[in-house]
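Format notes (please read before filing issues)

Several people have asked whether sequences and C-alpha coordinates are stored in separate files. They are not. Every record keeps both together, in the order shown below: the sequence lines, then the C-alpha coordinate lines. Line labels are part of the format and must not be stripped during preprocessing.
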Amino acid sequence: MKSFKELKEKAQWVKRETLKLHKYAPGTRLASSLSDIEIFVVLYYGGILRYDPKNIKWDKRDRFIISKGHGAVSLYPILADLRFFSKSELAKIGSKDSFLGIIPDTLIPGFETINGSLGHGLGVACGMALALKLKGIDRNVFVLSGDGELNEGAVWEAVMFASFHKLDNLILIVDNNKMSMLGYQKEILGMEPLKEKFKAFHWKTEEADGHNIAELRKVLNNLIKDDSGRPKVLVANTCKGKGVPGLENDPICHVKTLEADEIDNILKGCK
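Then the structure lines:
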Protein backbone atom coordinates (compact mmCIF):
# COMPACT_ATOMS: atom_id res chain seq x y z
CA MET A 1 0.00 0.00 0.00
CA LYS A 2 1.37 3.40 -0.96
CA SER A 3 1.95 6.31 1.43
CA PHE A 4 -0.09 9.51 1.22
CA LYS A 5 2.88 11.23 -0.39
CA GLU A 6 3.10 8.52 -3.03
CA LEU A 7 -0.65 8.67 -3.63
CA LYS A 8 -0.50 12.43 -4.16
CA GLU A 9 2.35 11.97 -6.62
CA LYS A 10 0.33 9.33 -8.46
CA ALA A 11 -2.65 11.67 -8.67
CA GLN A 12 -0.49 14.39 -10.18
CA TRP A 13 0.92 11.90 -12.69
CA VAL A 14 -2.58 10.71 -13.63
CA LYS A 15 -3.63 14.32 -14.19
CA ARG A 16 -0.74 14.87 -16.60
CA GLU A 17 -1.48 11.65 -18.45
CA THR A 18 -5.18 12.53 -18.68
CA LEU A 19 -4.30 15.87 -20.27
CA LYS A 20 -2.08 14.05 -22.77
CA LEU A 21 -4.92 11.67 -23.62
CA HIS A 22 -7.16 14.66 -24.34
CA LYS A 23 -4.46 16.01 -26.64
CA TYR A 24 -4.37 12.69 -28.52
CA ALA A 25 -8.18 12.39 -28.61
CA PRO A 26 -9.94 15.77 -28.23
CA GLY A 27 -13.32 14.03 -28.12
CA THR A 28 -12.63 12.84 -24.59
CA ARG A 29 -14.52 14.62 -21.81
CA LEU A 30 -11.61 16.21 -20.00
CA ALA A 31 -13.41 18.17 -17.28
CA SER A 32 -15.38 15.14 -16.14
CA SER A 33 -12.23 13.01 -16.15
CA LEU A 34 -10.38 15.46 -13.92
CA SER A 35 -12.89 15.51 -11.08
CA ASP A 36 -12.54 11.80 -10.22
CA ILE A 37 -8.75 11.33 -10.38
CA GLU A 38 -8.17 11.11 -6.63
CA ILE A 39 -11.07 8.66 -6.31
CA PHE A 40 -9.46 6.33 -8.85
CA VAL A 41 -6.04 6.71 -7.25
CA VAL A 42 -7.30 5.81 -3.77
CA LEU A 43 -9.28 2.84 -5.06
CA TYR A 44 -6.43 1.31 -7.07
CA TYR A 45 -3.30 2.37 -5.16
CA GLY A 46 -4.73 2.93 -1.67
CA GLY A 47 -5.49 -0.66 -0.72
CA ILE A 48 -9.25 -0.41 -1.27
CA LEU A 49 -9.94 -2.55 -4.35
CA ARG A 50 -8.88 -6.19 -4.60
CA TYR A 51 -7.77 -7.05 -8.14
CA ASP A 52 -5.18 -9.02 -10.11
CA PRO A 53 -3.96 -7.58 -13.44
CA LYS A 54 -2.57 -11.01 -14.34
CA ASN A 55 -5.98 -12.62 -13.80
CA ILE A 56 -8.55 -9.99 -14.77
CA LYS A 57 -11.56 -12.27 -14.20
CA TRP A 58 -10.27 -13.55 -10.85
CA ASP A 59 -13.26 -14.83 -8.86
CA LYS A 60 -12.02 -13.16 -5.68
CA ARG A 61 -11.75 -9.67 -7.18
CA ASP A 62 -13.88 -6.75 -6.09
CA ARG A 63 -16.07 -5.47 -8.90
CA PHE A 64 -15.89 -1.83 -9.97
CA ILE A 65 -18.60 -0.38 -12.20
CA ILE A 66 -17.81 3.04 -13.66
CA SER A 67 -21.27 4.32 -14.42
CA LYS A 68 -20.06 7.79 -15.48
CA GLY A 69 -18.24 6.39 -18.49
CA HIS A 70 -17.49 9.79 -20.02
CA GLY A 71 -15.37 10.57 -16.95
CA ALA A 72 -13.35 7.36 -17.02
CA VAL A 73 -10.49 8.42 -19.29
CA SER A 74 -8.38 9.20 -16.22
CA LEU A 75 -8.52 5.52 -15.30
CA TYR A 76 -6.68 4.51 -18.49
CA PRO A 77 -3.21 5.57 -17.24
CA ILE A 78 -3.80 3.76 -13.95
CA LEU A 79 -4.74 0.49 -15.63
CA ALA A 80 -1.71 0.79 -17.90
CA ASP A 81 0.55 1.58 -14.95
CA LEU A 82 -0.75 -1.51 -13.13
CA ARG A 83 -0.10 -3.61 -16.27
CA PHE A 84 -3.65 -4.44 -17.19
CA PHE A 85 -2.34 -3.47 -20.64
CA SER A 86 0.75 -1.85 -22.11
CA LYS A 87 1.43 1.87 -21.60
CA SER A 88 2.13 2.07 -25.33
CA GLU A 89 -1.63 1.79 -25.89
CA LEU A 90 -2.26 5.19 -24.31
CA ALA A 91 -0.95 7.15 -27.28
CA LYS A 92 -3.31 5.21 -29.58
CA ILE A 93 -6.50 6.33 -27.83
CA GLY A 94 -9.36 6.96 -30.22
CA SER A 95 -7.60 5.43 -33.23
CA LYS A 96 -9.15 2.65 -35.31
CA ASP A 97 -6.58 0.09 -34.14
CA SER A 98 -6.98 0.86 -30.42
CA PHE A 99 -9.32 -0.62 -27.81
CA LEU A 100 -9.14 2.67 -25.88
CA GLY A 101 -12.17 4.69 -26.91
CA ILE A 102 -13.35 8.07 -25.69
CA ILE A 103 -16.05 6.10 -23.85
CA PRO A 104 -14.78 2.80 -22.35
CA ASP A 105 -16.26 -0.64 -22.84
CA THR A 106 -15.42 -4.24 -22.00
CA LEU A 107 -12.77 -4.44 -24.73
CA ILE A 108 -10.49 -2.64 -22.28
CA PRO A 109 -8.81 -4.98 -19.77
CA GLY A 110 -9.98 -3.98 -16.32
CA PHE A 111 -13.45 -2.72 -17.25
CA GLU A 112 -16.34 -4.85 -16.03
CA THR A 113 -19.13 -3.29 -18.10
CA ILE A 114 -20.00 -1.11 -21.08
CA ASN A 115 -20.16 2.43 -19.73
CA GLY A 116 -22.10 4.48 -22.22
CA SER A 117 -25.70 5.48 -21.49
CA LEU A 118 -26.07 6.93 -18.02
CA GLY A 119 -28.27 5.57 -15.26
CA HIS A 120 -27.60 1.85 -15.64
CA GLY A 121 -24.42 1.27 -13.65
CA LEU A 122 -25.97 1.08 -10.20
CA GLY A 123 -28.64 -1.37 -11.36
CA VAL A 124 -26.00 -3.63 -12.90
CA ALA A 125 -23.95 -3.39 -9.70
CA CYS A 126 -27.00 -4.38 -7.63
CA GLY A 127 -27.27 -7.56 -9.70
CA MET A 128 -23.59 -8.31 -9.16
CA ALA A 129 -23.79 -7.62 -5.43
CA LEU A 130 -26.83 -9.86 -5.02
CA ALA A 131 -25.21 -12.65 -7.07
CA LEU A 132 -22.05 -12.53 -4.94
CA LYS A 133 -24.15 -12.80 -1.79
CA LEU A 134 -26.13 -15.75 -3.14
CA LYS A 135 -22.88 -17.50 -4.07
CA GLY A 136 -21.39 -16.81 -0.66
CA ILE A 137 -18.48 -14.81 -2.12
CA ASP A 138 -17.29 -12.16 0.33
CA ARG A 139 -16.37 -9.41 -2.09
CA ASN A 140 -17.55 -5.83 -2.64
CA VAL A 141 -19.05 -4.10 -5.64
CA PHE A 142 -18.05 -0.47 -6.08
CA VAL A 143 -19.83 1.98 -8.36
CA LEU A 144 -18.79 5.45 -9.51
CA SER A 145 -21.64 7.73 -10.58
CA GLY A 146 -21.81 11.40 -11.38
CA ASP A 147 -24.26 13.64 -9.54
CA GLY A 148 -25.92 14.60 -12.83
CA GLU A 149 -26.53 10.91 -13.45
CA LEU A 150 -28.71 10.84 -10.35
CA ASN A 151 -31.35 12.66 -12.40
CA GLU A 152 -32.12 9.29 -14.01
CA GLY A 153 -35.08 7.49 -12.46
CA ALA A 154 -33.45 4.07 -12.92
CA VAL A 155 -30.81 5.09 -10.39
CA TRP A 156 -33.42 5.50 -7.65
CA GLU A 157 -35.05 2.19 -8.54
CA ALA A 158 -31.64 0.62 -7.92
CA VAL A 159 -31.27 2.59 -4.68
CA MET A 160 -34.55 1.09 -3.44
CA PHE A 161 -33.61 -2.40 -4.64
CA ALA A 162 -30.25 -2.30 -2.84
CA SER A 163 -31.86 -1.19 0.40
CA PHE A 164 -34.65 -3.78 0.24
CA HIS A 165 -32.18 -6.62 -0.36
CA LYS A 166 -29.71 -5.30 2.24
CA LEU A 167 -26.81 -5.25 -0.20
CA ASP A 168 -24.14 -4.30 2.33
CA ASN A 169 -21.44 -5.39 -0.14
CA LEU A 170 -22.41 -2.50 -2.43
CA ILE A 171 -20.55 0.82 -2.18
CA LEU A 172 -21.64 3.74 -4.37
CA ILE A 173 -19.31 6.71 -4.83
CA VAL A 174 -20.97 9.85 -6.17
CA ASP A 175 -18.61 12.23 -7.96
CA ASN A 176 -20.49 15.27 -6.73
CA ASN A 177 -18.94 17.94 -8.96
CA LYS A 178 -22.27 19.83 -9.04
CA MET A 179 -22.37 20.17 -12.84
CA SER A 180 -24.22 18.37 -15.57
CA MET A 181 -23.48 18.44 -19.29
CA LEU A 182 -24.79 21.95 -19.95
CA GLY A 183 -24.99 23.71 -16.64
CA TYR A 184 -25.05 23.64 -12.87
CA GLN A 185 -26.90 20.70 -11.41
CA LYS A 186 -28.80 22.93 -8.98
CA GLU A 187 -30.36 24.78 -11.94
CA ILE A 188 -31.31 21.63 -13.88
CA LEU A 189 -32.64 19.18 -11.30
CA GLY A 190 -31.13 19.93 -7.93
CA MET A 191 -30.52 16.90 -5.71
CA GLU A 192 -29.44 18.63 -2.53
CA PRO A 193 -29.48 17.71 0.26
CA LEU A 194 -28.01 14.57 -1.30
CA LYS A 195 -26.94 12.80 1.88
CA GLU A 196 -30.40 13.03 3.36
CA LYS A 197 -31.96 11.49 0.26
CA PHE A 198 -29.81 8.37 0.56
CA LYS A 199 -30.45 8.23 4.30
CA ALA A 200 -34.19 8.25 3.58
CA PHE A 201 -33.66 5.05 1.59
CA HIS A 202 -31.78 3.51 4.55
CA TRP A 203 -28.30 3.68 3.06
CA LYS A 204 -25.19 4.09 5.20
CA THR A 205 -24.14 7.56 4.08
CA GLU A 206 -20.82 9.40 4.31
CA GLU A 207 -19.39 12.56 2.78
CA ALA A 208 -15.81 13.56 1.96
CA ASP A 209 -13.66 15.99 0.03
CA GLY A 210 -13.23 14.09 -3.24
CA HIS A 211 -9.78 15.59 -3.80
CA ASN A 212 -8.45 14.83 -0.31
CA ILE A 213 -6.67 11.50 -0.60
CA ALA A 214 -6.30 10.88 3.13
CA GLU A 215 -9.97 11.63 3.77
CA LEU A 216 -11.15 9.47 0.87
CA ARG A 217 -9.14 6.47 2.00
CA LYS A 218 -10.27 6.80 5.61
CA VAL A 219 -13.96 7.07 4.72
CA LEU A 220 -13.88 4.23 2.19
CA ASN A 221 -12.13 1.96 4.68
CA ASN A 222 -14.78 2.81 7.27
CA LEU A 223 -17.57 2.02 4.81
CA ILE A 224 -16.00 -1.34 3.97
CA LYS A 225 -15.85 -2.21 7.68
CA ASP A 226 -19.40 -1.04 8.41
CA ASP A 227 -21.56 -3.97 9.52
CA SER A 228 -24.96 -2.27 9.74
CA GLY A 229 -26.34 -4.48 6.94
CA ARG A 230 -27.08 -1.54 4.62
CA PRO A 231 -25.81 -0.52 1.18
CA LYS A 232 -23.28 2.30 1.43
CA VAL A 233 -22.70 5.59 -0.35
CA LEU A 234 -19.89 8.12 -0.28
CA VAL A 235 -20.78 11.59 -1.53
CA ALA A 236 -17.41 12.84 -2.77
CA ASN A 237 -17.49 16.62 -3.22
CA THR A 238 -15.33 17.49 -6.20
CA CYS A 239 -14.61 20.23 -8.72
CA LYS A 240 -15.30 19.58 -12.38
CA GLY A 241 -12.23 20.41 -14.43
CA LYS A 242 -10.10 20.36 -11.27
CA GLY A 243 -6.72 22.05 -11.75
CA VAL A 244 -7.43 23.62 -15.15
CA PRO A 245 -8.41 27.29 -14.82
CA GLY A 246 -10.18 27.34 -18.19
CA LEU A 247 -12.49 24.55 -17.08
CA GLU A 248 -13.05 25.05 -13.36
CA ASN A 249 -16.34 26.80 -12.61
CA ASP A 250 -17.33 26.96 -16.28
CA PRO A 251 -20.94 25.70 -16.48
CA ILE A 252 -20.35 24.13 -19.90
CA CYS A 253 -16.88 22.75 -19.20
CA HIS A 254 -18.19 19.22 -19.83
CA VAL A 255 -18.25 19.82 -23.57
CA LYS A 256 -15.21 22.09 -23.84
CA THR A 257 -12.14 20.96 -25.77
CA LEU A 258 -8.65 22.32 -25.16
CA GLU A 259 -6.24 23.05 -27.99
CA ALA A 260 -2.89 21.27 -28.09
CA ASP A 261 -0.94 24.39 -27.15
CA GLU A 262 -3.24 25.01 -24.16
CA ILE A 263 -2.55 21.51 -22.93
CA ASP A 264 1.20 21.93 -23.39
CA ASN A 265 1.14 25.12 -21.30
CA ILE A 266 -0.85 23.42 -18.54
CA LEU A 267 1.55 20.45 -18.54
CA LYS A 268 4.49 22.80 -18.02
CA GLY A 269 2.91 23.98 -14.78
CA CYS A 270 1.96 20.60 -13.29
CA LYS A 271 5.19 18.62 -13.26
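For reference, the curators noted about this record: The beta strands are 63-66, 141-146, 170-176, 179-180, 183-184, 204-209, 232-237. The longest strand covers residues 170-176.
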